[in-house]
C-alpha cells in the first residue's frame, strides 16, 4: 500500500508540473500578444485595421507622449545606476 501512495504522489507531482508548464506557455503567449498589440498601436498599424483616419492626430499625439515617457524613464534608470 505504501508503494501505491508514492506512485499516486509521483503522478500528482507530474500532473502539477505539466499544468504549470501549460500555464507558463499561456502567459508567455498573452505577453507576446500584448507586446504585438502595443507595437501595432505605437507604430500606427492599428489605424490600418480600423480604417478610420480621423483618429490619426490623437494617436500620433498619444504615441509622442508615450515615447517621451519612455525616454524620461530611461534617463531616470541611467541616473539610478550611477
Explain what the structure shows.
This protein has 82 residues and is mainly alpha-helical. Helices cover 89% and strands 0% of the residues. It contains 3 helices and no strands. The chain has helices spanning 2-42, 45-50, 56-81. The radius of gyration is 23 Å and the shape is elongated.
Oligomer: single chain
Q: How many alpha or pi helices?
A: 3
Share in β-strands? under 5%
Q: Give the helix/strand class.
A: mainly alpha
> What is the number of beta strands?
0
**Largest sheet features:** none
Features:
82 residues; mainly alpha
Record the SSE blueprint:
Layout: H1 2-42, H2 45-50, H3 56-81
Question: Summarize this, please?
Answer:
The protein has 82 residues and is mostly helical. It has three helices and no strands.
